[in-house]
């Protein structure tokens, strides 16, 4: 039950009803998640009293309270009939899930994937296959089936992933970074179920005990804080500078590391996310080199999250990988850096989140450590073969001169330009709203505005037991059907409030206008 102060009782009845409704929803969600009956607990072994505290305490804001309420509303709307909502569907801008918001799949990879899925008799060996699929898709499917041992994608693969697919990754990295041909070691590449699995695998290896920690950017993608919570490690935050388009400050890195060491934390590594999530910035080559040198100086493993490397929108910017920085600094040749780089088919213009394909490429990691990581991967047998195949096709598409090359490149260009235009539309649109401030989204898939909260909202959220931007995001969802993620779920400086939204939706223009209108009414509702 929500308790009201005398100030709250003095507010209009509609305001009190709204806070009571929000409190009831959050209480319901909490009780559904955590409540356990003493009678049940007495006869069942796995209960809320016995389950791991680390699991109970970990939080993943992207699919947290607001997303849960959005799912509930979606189910209510699906029943049809009259509802209390002024919208007929939820616009899910809370997660970078391109195909869920009408981004089209690239044709050629899906054609190859179809042939990989089909039995040979009705696929690559069908007498009319050339009438149904382009020749380069047929040939690539034959090649990939041979690499899979002739068994197709229904069988387990090598636990690191199909070797030929890993070779595609190695050649992709060499071409991207201008590295010496053959310099990327295929045995140090693991294909995984998205980049998330690879990140989890490395963090599991790095958190030896509860004295260990990893430096992560603030704001950060909640995978990192959630993983550290689950593993019992320390989150060592370093703040990005919002006033310089979420740039890096080396003094801040030194401060963060020194503070952690003073607390007795054994800092094992550092995470960078480039381009940034949730912040949407692109690090300059000098910034990436500074980070690499910092990690080499302090003997930290660098975890470089590079899943948005295709999503660089501002003219003059470029994606500059941590591996390229280390190579140009001579640190790879001299074995002076330990670096793990991650990529995924879920982002870029591929957007194949459901395929769960990703990779990690490791530099400076000793062979015996790679063997231990192989043992960890082998305990899960292998990542899914369709995801591995999609990684191969992301890294090596149709070649110039192939029948599908021009159409494939045009599809990618069209998707990229749409993302670029919506990045500008959303970040500039939010920045133009009085009371909001939004840095340019020059990369990735997100805008991360700062929102001035009315004093009444801050007080009401305190009584309800959650952050002001959670209250705002919940109100936005219930009034407009727009699902965002409270900025508090990513970490931010004390006193800052905001949210993260994607610009994937084709409804982005109307989303910005609805946010503008809602914010005005929200401020009026909670004005003192």
What does this molecule look like?
Helix 11 links the parallel strand 3 and strand 4. Helix 9 runs parallel beside helix 16. The strands form 4 sheets. A 7-stranded mixed beta sheet has the order 2-8-7-6-5-3-4, sandwiched between helices. It has a 3-stranded antiparallel beta sheet with strand order 10-14-13. Strands 1-12 form a two-stranded parallel sheet. The N terminus is likely disordered. The chain is globular, with a radius of gyration of 24 Å. It is built from 20 helices and 14 strands. It has 528 residues and is of the alpha/beta class.
How would you summarize what this structure contains?
This protein is an alpha/beta fold. It is built from 20 helices and 14 strands. The model is unreliable at 1-10 and 30-37 (pLDDT under 50).
Structural class, by secondary structure, is: alpha/beta
Question: Number of helical runs?
Answer: 20
Biggest sheet layout: 7 strands, mixed
DSSP helix fraction: 40-55%
- Low-confidence blocks of residues: 1-10, 30-37
